[in-house]
Every structure is written in structure tokens, then in C-alpha cells.
Amino acid sequence: MSVIFAIATGIMFAFGVFLLLRRDLIKSAMGFYVLFTAINFLLLAVGAFNGTVAPYVNEQNQIVGQPSDPLVQALILTAIVISFGSYALLTSFIAVASRRFRSINTDDINKLQG
Questions:
Q1: CA separation (Å) from 81 to 26, 29, 39, 84, 94?
Q2: Is the dihedral of CA 96, 98, 99, 100 positive or negative?
Q3: pLDDT tens digit sequence for 7-45
Q4: Residue 66 gets which letter from DSSP?
Q5: Is the pLDDT of residue 88 over 70?
Q6: Nearby residues of 109 by Cβ (< 8 Å), 6 or more positions away
Q7: How many CA atoms lie within 13 A of 20 on its CB side?
């Protein structure tokens, strides 16, 4: 993993956590999505391409050179689908809470206290 990629991923993690801890529910949801994107970048960085060709074979079903690992691609695709579903559910919760309490600020929503 290159140094620039590591720094960019760390900045995205920090920015995602910063937004996640905000009082505004929409900014918090944006932080959730930025954090998921940083996790995808981390998966991409640790499973970077180390081979000489893509994980495919030629016409004679022979692998030319050292293939890369397709597991990382499958994990990232699965993580993208799960993060999209989680983000859709989170935004629907925010929409319901904003209609019910007429605010998106967590300080104004004091009916949630037990």
C-alpha cells in the first residue's frame, strides 16, 4: 500500500468519524457513508493487485503469469451492496424521525430519552 493511499484512507476514516459524531442526523448519516467508503478503500489497499495478469484465463484455459486474487473484488462488491442497503435504511429512519419530531437535531429530540 502506498503512503499516499494510506494517508487518504486515514483522512477519510477521520472525516467519517467526525461527521458521525455530529448532532445533525443528516451529517451523521453522511459520516456513516464516508466511513463505509473508507472501509472499502482499506479493503482495496490490503488486497492490492500483486500478480501480473487479471484473474482470468486465456482461450486454452491456461493462466498466463501470476493471477491476482479475486476474493478482494468480491469482498468489496459485497461491502458496497451492504453499505448501500444500510445507508438506505438509515436515511429512512432519519426521514421518519424528522417527520415525527419535526427536527433533525438530536438535541431537540428529547422524547427519545427513557
A1: 21, 17, 13, 5, 20
A2: positive
A3: 989 999 999 999 999 888 899 999 999 999 998 888 887
A4: P
A5: yes
A6: 97, 101, 103
A7: 14
The closest alpha carbon to 54, from 63, 41, 46, belongs to 63
Three state DSSP letters for 87-101 = HHHHHHHHHHHHHHH
Q: Quote the cell numbers at residue 86.
A: 444500510
23: Cβ–Cβ under 8 A, 6 or more apart, which residues? 105, 106, 107
73 pLDDT tier (thresholds 50, 70, 90): confident
CB contact set of 25 (below 8 Å; sequence gap of 6+): 94, 97, 98, 104, 105, 106
pTM: 0.72
Contact by Cβ (8 Å): 66, 52: yes
Beta bridge partners of 67: 53
CATH, range 3-49+68-101: 1.10.287
User: Which residue has 455530529 as its cell numbers?
Assistant: 22
